[in-house]
Fold:
Amino acid sequence: MGTDVHGLAAERLQGGRKRYTRRRQELVELLLAARGPLTVEHILTLGPQLRLSSVYRNLTVLEDADVVRRLSRDPAGHACFELSEDLTGHHHHLACKRCGAMTDVELTDAIEEHLERELDRLALERGFEVTSHRLDIFGRCQSCPSVETSLSTEIASPC
Structure:
């Protein structure tokens, strides 16, 4: 990734008359280092110096400035957050329906081109203009037990 994520984040915040504070930089750094979207709970685990109210407030500011995007909720009802795609590059997600873990994945150029052609065809049929797409693939991650195993096993923590 050749983008200066921190520089772009600072510019976007300044455009909204907000400062790129140390705590906001720490949040961006945590999200940048993550291999997928994070819940607030995971952010607090990775950044123990951060405080809950501060994380929520700063995620909202970063989301409003289009630095962070909020994704659908995990099975426990928690929102997941990641850096905006234009800062990190186009990607999709593998999402565990059991524990809520989300992992970033990139498709090959050939598959991505085929997907875009099919989405454009589908949109054209319905008089719709595609501006972007996101693909979330749902299933069960390798850390979660299978359905048969889970009947007798209680899960103590998420993946």
Remarks:
- The beta strands are 38-39, 68-71, 80-83, 92-96, 102-105, 136-139.
